[in-house]
Amino acid sequence: MTATSDFSFMRAMPVLDCSDIAATIAFWRDKLGFDGATWGEPPTFAIMQRGTASIAFALMPKDKVAVSRNWAAYLYVKDVDVLYAEYEALGVELPHPPERRAYNCREFVVDDPDGHIVAFGQVLNPDPLGPGLGNRVGRDRKTAPP
Fold this sequence. Notes:
- This protein is of the alpha/beta class and 146 residues long.
- Helices cover 14% and strands 30% of the residues.
- Residues 133-146 have low confidence and may be disordered.
């Protein structure tokens, strides 16, 4: 199916499960520099935002198993090294410094209190089709170089 209208997507907001809204808000506010708001009494939903990036959190039932170990979200930033230094200074546990990836991004990851892996990446050479897509259009993805 191909889009036929001139409608444009403006942004996306992943919604992640969390086990403790207060702890999640504290981590994203105090460690990652996001601001937010909650809904419900007691809160069962929160949206955290920094710049134009937003991530929502929904309180999961106590008997629900948490998350996969894949990326829960990928947030694009202007300068990944500056952000990494900020988080490092705040004592955020960072498994590795920013690394260049084959898909034209330099990135690092953090784990939030519920084990969500969130990547922060900077596009190195902007491509009008998006990171990692331009050099693959019309080619077999199994054989195309990254």
